[in-house]
Amino acid sequence: MSKFIWVSASPSLKYFHRRLLNNLSKVVKIEFWEYYQTLDEGSSIDKAVNLLHEYLANSPDPVHLLGHGIGGVVALNYARLYPDRVTSLVLLSVAVKPGINWHSYYYAQLQSLPSNRHCVLKLVSSNLFPDACARHVSDLVDRLDRDLVEAPSNHSLFKLDILDESGVEMPLLVCGSQDDPAIASPALYGWTTYFKSTDEIWRSSTGGHFFHHIHFELLSYRIQCFWQKVEPTMALDRFVQMELN
């Protein structure tokens, strides 16, 4: 069976991946790869992709890649550059135009609202994580503020870099949330234009941009079902089957 690699490019946001990864780890071993960008480095998705390629260079077989947000964009770009190295691709909160993400949503709000950075981040945090209490919003503001610096995004107040849209060669699962303001329905369902018979799309009704933190069990089941179609010998988690069937 191929390796399963979670691709992360947002160190400050990895807390929101833990529940899903812990659940998936009941079935398969998930390797966690993370890109760290130092403050003196230029922001570059390409550099993250190159480092991921170096990491996977010694892997004898193709791998299953999955990621959320900008981490998902890194996985997507790698899959397009090296399709023979990727068995399947799972993208969470990734738009068909990959440059559309929470960073672009933030900068659009910053340009349109007469408020400072902290106030806009507080508003964006509440929108990305609906129903969060004040304490959680405060924590999310801090995490998002760091992600604007740490993640390899090409966005800035003066430039919103929207990457080209297209499909991929390997089986693809795209997931999102109906109430995610950063990745609206057209940005998510635009993927279906490029779908093959092996591709799937799934959305939760709630959860916002970090829906995988809220609905981790249901999402884990969806991902496992997708993987099982690619790897027929893979067994689903029995607990998840009993709970969700």
Automatic annotation (TrEMBL):
Residues 57-113 form the AB hydrolase-1 domain. The keyword Transferase applies. InterPro entries: AB_hydrolase_1, AB_hydrolase_fold. Keywords: Acyltransferase, Hydrolase, Transferase. SUPFAM superfamilies: alpha/beta-Hydrolases (SSF53474). One of its GO terms (molecular function) is acyltransferase activity. It comes from the Bacteria. This is Putative hydrolase or acyltransferase of alpha/beta superfamily.
